[in-house]
Amino acid sequence: MLAHPQLSVIAPFFNEQDNIEPLYRSIIAAVEPLQVSFEIVFVDDGSRDATLARAVAIARTDPRVLVVKFRRNYGQTAAMAAGVAYANGSILVTMDGDLQNDPADIRKMLAKVAEGFDIVVGWRHDRKDKFLSRKLPSRVANWIIGKVTGVPIKDNGCSLKAYRAAVIKAIPLYSEMHRFIPAMASIAGPRIAEIKVRHHPRRFGTSKYGLSRIYKVMLDLLVIKTVTGFASRPLLWFTLLSLPALVFSLTAFAYAAFAVLVRGTDMPLPVAGAGLIFGSGAVMLMSSGAIGELVFKLGEVREPDFARLTTDCVTETTAQNGTAHNG
Asked: Of 1, 46, 100, 174, which has the maximum CB count within 10 A?
């Protein structure tokens, strides 16, 4: 394998034995005419069928193919992260392994990167999925994500994306975060483009996603908003969270004082007790913010680290030997 190819194409697989060989042929047919040096990184996410065996067979005949193996299923984000870690290219293109993304669109993505963009996101404008279970929830989620993160992307769930390696390799990926990479990267102010890409109906195998992933996406969205909006100002974030409790506490104490000092009645213990509980909660939230400030100031991850991720960065990586790696 080349130590520093210009392009790395990353595709994770989970029980996609009938898709891996057609996808390999499609990638070769799409990328070879571009006259760029490239590699293909296949990530087996703990498949229980013949996916791994077929991937290794391809790698044995083509030295441009690297296979990364998980011992069990960890999910698409973990597989994407492993592919990014092992990839050596200057530009990384990620895509699904189910043949629904079209490798022929890689040409358009590379052209956008050549224009100076750091991240190019695919938009499945004519998506070939079921409306109620896939398309409608996706549209609602994309609208919410755009409003919350401030990164107005029409199709965050599309796996067909192109990145400069200097940007994507510095972004931590976990849970379902692979669809939030543009929002996470927004801290560094990258140039992001979105282009229309083709989308094909699934030919082989079954979809691994359903409505059950919605709650994970919503929780991850909360994390993303916290990281991108308040990573360097945790005290402000926790203070804002504590304001309703603080207001309720002060109102309760004011009522209790009015009842005792002005009206001359006994102390309204339930009201005073509620004020004490909410006041204590507000103090604990602000204390958590203060601790967060200390962690940020003294920790290893700081906002200026993201600011250094520019289009002029060059990342030196070491070529991986062999065709199969255990992870």
From this structure: 100
Residue 225's contacts (CB-CB under 8 Å, 6 or more residues apart) are 148, 149
Q: Which of 10, 240, 215, 22 is nearest to 106 (CA)?
A: 10
Q: Which residues have CB under 8 Å from 111's CB, separation 6+? A: none
Gap between the terminal Cα atoms of the chain: 20
Which residues are 67's β-sheet partners? 42, 324
Q: What are phi and psi of 299, to 5 degrees?
A: -75, -175
What's the rounded Cα separation, in Å, for the pair 44 and 277? 51
Which residues are CB-contacts of 326 (< 8 A; sequence separation ≥ 6)? 69, 71
**Coil vs helix vs strand at 257:** helix
Q: How far apart are CA 285 and CA 162, in angstroms?
A: 40
Q: Are strands 119-123 and 38-44 parallel, antiparallel or unpaired?
A: unpaired
> Can you give the pLDDT of all 327 residues of the chain as single tens digits?
566 899 999 999 998 889 999 999 999 999 999 989 999 999 999 898 999 999 999 999 999 999 999 988 888 888 888 999 999 999 999 998 888 889 999 999 999 999 999 999 988 877 766 656 566 666 767 777 767 766 777 777 788 999 999 888 877 776 666 777 777 776 666 788 889 998 877 776 666 555 556 666 666 666 666 666 666 677 777 888 789 999 999 999 998 898 888 888 888 888 888 989 998 988 888 888 777 767 666 655 554 555 544 434 333 433 344 444 444
Q: Domain 7-230+310-326: what homologous superfamily?
A: Spore Coat Polysaccharide Biosynthesis Protein SpsA; Chain A (3.90.550.10)
Domain ranges of the chain: 7-230+310-326, 234-301
* CA 296 to chain CA mean position, Å: 22
Q: Which helix (H) or strand (E) holds 65?
A: strand 65-69
> pTM score, two decimals?
0.67
Return the bridge partners of 164, or none.
91
d(CA 181, CA 106): 18
Name the residue with tokens 């990014």: 84
